[in-house]
Amino acid sequence: MTTTDSPIEPTLSVRNLTVNSAYAELLHGISFDIAPGERVGLIGESGSGKSLTATSVMGLLPETLAANGEIHLAGGHDDLVHASEAKLSQLRGNTMAMVFQEPMTALNPLMKVGAQVAEIMTQHRTVAAGQSAAARAVELLAQVKLPNPAEAALAFPHQLSGGQRQRVMLAMAMANDPQLLLCDEPTTALDVTVQAEVLNLIEGLVTERGTSLLFITHDIGVVAEVCERVLVMYKGDIVEDGTVEQVITNPQHPYTKALIAASDLSVVDERGRLHTIATSAITLPTAAELASALAEPAAAKAPAEPAIAVPAPARSLDFVIPHQRRNDPDEQIIFNEIEVEPLIRVRDLTRQYKRRGGGKLFGKPPVVHGLRGLDFDVAKGQRFGIVGESGSGKSTLMRLMCALDEPTGGSVTVAGQELAGASERELRDFRSQVQIVFQDPMGSLDPRMKVEQIVAEPLRGVSRDEARERVIAQLESVGLDADVMHRHPHQFSGGQRQRISIARALITRPRVLVADEAVSALDVSVRAQVLNLLSDLVDEYALTLLFVSHDLGVIRHSCDTVAVLSDGRIVECGPTDDVYDNPLHPYTQKLVSATPSIAELAAKARA
Amino acid sequence: MLLTIARRLGIFAATLVAASIITFLLLSILPGNAARVALGIEATEAQVAAQEQLMGLDRPLYVQYFDWFSHLVIGDFGTSTVSGQEIGPQIGDALAITGVLVISSVLLALLFAIPMGILSAVRQNKADGVIISGISQVGISIPGFLFGILLVSLFAVKLKWLPAGGWDDPGEDFVGFLEHLILPAIALGSVQGAVLSRYVRSSVLEVMREDFLRTARAKGLTPNRALMRHGLRNAAIPVMTVLGLQIASLLIGAVVIERVFAIPGLGSLLLDKVALRDLPSIQGIVMVLVALVLLLNLLIDIAYTIVDPRLRSAS
Amino acid sequence: MTTKTSTPVAPRPRKNEAPSGNRRNGNLIVGMILIGLVVFAAVLSAFWTPFDPEGVFPQELLLPPGSEHLLGTDNFGRDVLSSILRGAQISLIVGIVAVGIAAVLGVPFGIIAGMNPGRLDQFMMRGNDILLAFPALLLAIIFGAVFGANTMTAMVALGIGSAPSFASVARSGTQQVMSREYVQASKASGKNGWFVGVKHVLPNISGILIVQASVSFGIAVLAEAALSYLGLGTTPPTPSWGRMLQDAQGYLYVQPLLVVWPGIAIAIAVLGFNLLGDGLRDRLDPRMQVKR
User: Fold this and answer.
1) A181/A37 Cα distance (integer angstroms)
2) DSSP code, position A326
3) Per-residue pLDDT for B312 more than 90?
4) In terms of CB atoms within 10 Å, which of A396, A440, A544, C255 comes out highest?
5) What is the CA radius of gyration of chain B?
6) How large is the average pLDDT for residues A337-352?
7) Domains of chain A
8) Is residue C13 over pLDDT 60?
9) Residues of C in contact with B202 (CB under 8 A)
10) Which residues from chain A sit within 8 angstroms of residue B310, using beta carbons?
């Protein structure tokens, strides 16, 4: 639905775009316009068809898919859907350009970065080949704020970090001043702070040149940062189209409402649980209802009541969690020190890695994944979050706490068992006391095993029958039927596989549950379900939770205490609400400001 | 980078030494006392014992080994116990012939494999792609020597265009040399080419799925241009890994082909010496073959580091 | 899955796999049919052949295909068809034993190397490289020279010569598996190396190992043919396709067809295994795709 009936020709006009595979219709005839200079976001979960839309516009659909409908670019070009490859090649990289999601694989590893940027210009003859193109490439790299652009141009992609590569992609895309820039989840694979910078860059570039933008993402927060208008997609249809303010503060379509509710991890219902698509008590409309809803004229709607943020009920701990920050890198602080019998005690924990040869040219220095002398405690029943970006050392810390790795110095004591230097025999008890739920729902379950074997694996010295009983009971506790036992992991969805993972982790009745980015790979709607489940189980089994993540929102919801990790050190630690509302350390401040919450966005939008 | 090369050279040398030890040990188990073989069946015990001493066969094994190896590295292959001639020159002559055969075969193989492989990948789902793929399938199922025999049967026996076997020195009779080279080179080269083309095909298919090819197309390059400028060099890398192994098998395939075409190369020499139980000769020839295989792999390894910049800064 | 009761590690094509009419399965089906033909010939010839393969008909030398001798006779007057049928046995046996030896030697080696990155891995891989310097056929020739040339030495030599490729494949597969989180989970449950290796690694690399076995089988058949052709393989009077080619070459001017029959037999067998390997490899790929 167009927002205005403007006489100016839209930069992009899509009418009834349908995409079919051999078996199904993936896009059901969508239509929308993008005005010149307009920044439009396209939001949806996996399977919504958002990426397909962009690839259709660029004409880069794989051979197995067929498109129908009409796509027009401003400038009197023919319909793109049925245009020839030759015609499309002329337009790509010239009139319309695209930036993709995975920066690590998007560049040719054998070609220098500068040459790849120059190529897009020589391809469309916007600049003469040779010296001029090379020089212009360096200029472009400077525009995207790459440090040392001249050196960067002579580097190979593997010498640059993910964020830097994405800047290169942007430089390439904007090289020929396209009318339309398409971005398909360009920042999803990047750290939160880097994401903020790249988003800023994108917004700056397109506003400066009046380029239209189609920005695809699953993250509402990101859309609110960069776009003025947003389209919401669900299962191959556009279900809502409005300005960012409208959609966030006053969503019309039930799916949009549900999505926003589920995305907002700071809002919980009366029982203190997150909203999921299912529990939003909303039934998704049938096609007919959808059609009539979309046919309604976009009249001004009365703003709804702002959602009431019900704070999560305080979990009772019988001590006060101190809020501490690190003032100087070498300071010796013990964070969250527990006087009486901490369940976990970490002192001067260090892990160094030997790196052969040089590190990345423009990135961080060689020994990046080390831990530099951590000191902290965790009490029984505490829900301790560990937040950090890539390279902070959080994965290393996780592995050390689970005795999957040996520290190079210091000690880790869990329930009285010293982990450093312990033999496997000594760790036997420990193994059943501490269990992990991993990030990747695909990789954390052995595809060749049946679910029963997988869930029963941690059990020791238990008869076959008893194991089976316990597996059934555990599966039920995570909301799965007993007959799931006989199937293989690939027959389940991501959310279901995480549940199986959780069941496996709990079967030995551990005292500590470590969650390693347990929900990062899941869709927004599923994420809420799994977080609720985790919460319930932690309560029910009286577990101590260690939650490692890069996602502030997730940690805020699930943990009462959070430690912020940066470059191998804890820089701040304290009660989650305190740390987020009042970050003391500059790094924490940077982190928090780079991740706005939906409530904040709504407030900002309304203002 | 120099450090990498030095390391590889070191590994090459060490592997060569290890291989030589294996060769030596294996062949020293040869039943049928070498001394007895040299003297003939009529020899008496005493004569055999004396001969053994003469040949140094009564020394401890490791001494024999060091003696042999130290001569080997300076190029002295010793003398044949059967013919009494120096082995070195014999091997040299034979090597030259096999070398020519192998090099022409490799060139033919590459000439065949690269276009076929690329085409069958690019036209994967179209009729001609499938047909080419089918041809290469059949190609790898036929032993080289069989193909050689068939070629002889057609071109030499039936059509009488080319000789059925034998060899001419290029210095003496260049045309004859070419005539004798064509069929064996085609036999060897086309079969190996079929094998290689399958690797080229799968490598190109892999590359076509890579993200950076999508980026290239998003920049406005046509699919063919994108493949040529960005894809092929990347596709070459996995093929290079295989090339090393393939050349090794080509070398051995040459051994059999030489028998088919009665070419006096290294392969024929080896087989003859095996029949004669000429131990020192066999050792020498095997070492040369092994050294060639290792050397080729070394060169390919080095070429690898040149082609792929990712391998340069690391390690 | 059909389990072969005769030889321990010999991988066999899964004959009771239901094909789904997909083009990818075309390879698989054709491969299985061709191999089926060979197996049929081998089994049949154990009980019955049109004539005794070793029986000579001095009056009927070098006959072209006819009503009595369907494929003609060779230079000794032996029935070609019977020899071809019986020859299938040798090819299959050599293949099975060679691949069996290669797998038994190479797979554990590769798995251990893959599970122990660092010194042990480096050391083992050097060993592998050294063995790789001796192509299988060369080893067979040397073995033939040292131990006497016959089917047994050929099989053992080919087996040893093919082991390094199994080791390589097993190693890279193992490394992939080890990097997966379910292995971490297993370790976090206190499982030791044995458990992880047997319960997690082996089932997950079995696919690529079967593909490798199929390919190696084809290579073994080719190698046996080459060896027999050179006179270093199966000794008379046992029929072998390779040796039939050697005999046939001598009579090219007289009866060129003699070369064709063993050639076709070899091609069918090898093609069958190659197609099977390809088909299996293709089938492994889509299985890796999981529901989101």
Assistant:
1) 10
2) -
3) no
4) A544
5) 24
6) 85
7) 10-95+178-250 (3.40.50.300), 104-175 (no CATH), 333-358+365-606 (3.40.50.300)
8) no
9) none
10) 109, 156, 158
